[in-house]
Amino acid sequence: MKQDGGTQTAEITLDWLKHEEPEIYHLLRALEGDLDALRWLKHRGDGLFLFVEALTGAKEAVDTLENRAAAKLVDLFDTISHGHTDDWLREYDADLHALFLFVRGDDSAFKGVKHNRATLKRVAEIVREKYRNYREEDLEATASSNGVVSDVGCLIGEMHLTNREYQKAIEAFTRALASDPTPDAFAGRARAYRALADIDDVAATELGARVLN
After folding, report:
1. Helices marked H in the chain
2. Contact status, residue 165 vs residue 146, Cβ threshold 8 Å
3. Backbone phi and psi for residue 162, each to the nearest 5 degrees, phi listed first
4. CB atoms inside a 10 Å sphere around CB 97
5. What pLDDT digit, counting tens, does each position of 39-96 carry?
6. How far apart are CA 96 and CA 72, in angstroms?
7. Global confidence as pTM
8. 74-81 and 46-55 helices cross at what angle (nearest 10)?
9. What is the 3-state secondary structure (H, E, C) of 64-88?
10. Which of 115, 186, 187, 205 lies in the 20 to 30 Å Cα band around 73?
11. What's the rounded Cα separation, in Å, for the pair 69 and 132?
């Protein structure tokens, strides 16, 4: 993570952020070694605190983060999903910005990162899986409370299609069809099947070319 040229300079640079986006501000300061910021995150919730501890290389924190229920990481998920500072964060801390994008579903996020550390990517993979599970559970709870349970499978299916998780999309649309066979559910599952078929076609073509050579 980026080290700004001294505590005083960092405070001046990030002063506006402290008021507009306090979670991001304290997260960045904690990653730079500010213990007061780390205590602020701990008071806020376990998610952000564990996230910082894991990124700074504490193996126990990585293990704890991996085993922590998604429902107890809401403060972390809210911070990651809140993209108002994306453009600024890209310039200030490219690693953290890439991690946020990756968690939100951008598989190519780490391609341009110069310092793609193993710990960074491991933490990103853990948080991404929990973030997706949390979003699914949130969609299901919202749909249930609004009396539209039949729609949740389609919503989840579309989310998986966006993330190119085609097998999971098929499963979600199939669940939707079991409860309410709507045109949208059939169309969504068909798109997921076609995407898988396209992947197989490309793999077959590439394998055939290697065999011929």
Report:
1. 7-20, 22-31, 35-44, 46-55, 59-67, 74-81, 86-92, 94-103, 118-145, 149-162, 166-179, 183-212
2. no
3. -60, -35
4. 20
5. 999 998 889 999 999 998 888 999 999 999 888 898 998 898 887 888 899 889 988 9
6. 21
7. 0.64
8. 70
9. HHHHCCHHHCHHHHHHHHCCCCHHH
10. 115
11. 12
From CA 202, how far away is CA 206, in angstroms rounded?
6
Spell out the domains of the chain, with CATH numbers in brackets: 1-147 (no CATH), 148-213 (1.25.40)
Interacting residues of 1 by C-beta distance below 8 A, sequence separation 6+: 28, 31, 32, 55, 93, 95, 96
Both structure tokens of 147:
């009396």
Using CA atoms, how far residue 12 sits from 4, 17, 37, 84, 148, in Å, is: 10, 10, 15, 20, 49
The residue whose two tokens read 């197989």 is 200
What residues contact 156, with CB distance under 8 A and at least 6 apart? 136, 139, 140, 172
The one-letter amino acid code at 79 reads T
Q: What are the tokens at 174?
A: 């199939």
Residue 123 tokens read as 């933490």
- The tokens of 102 are what? 């990756």
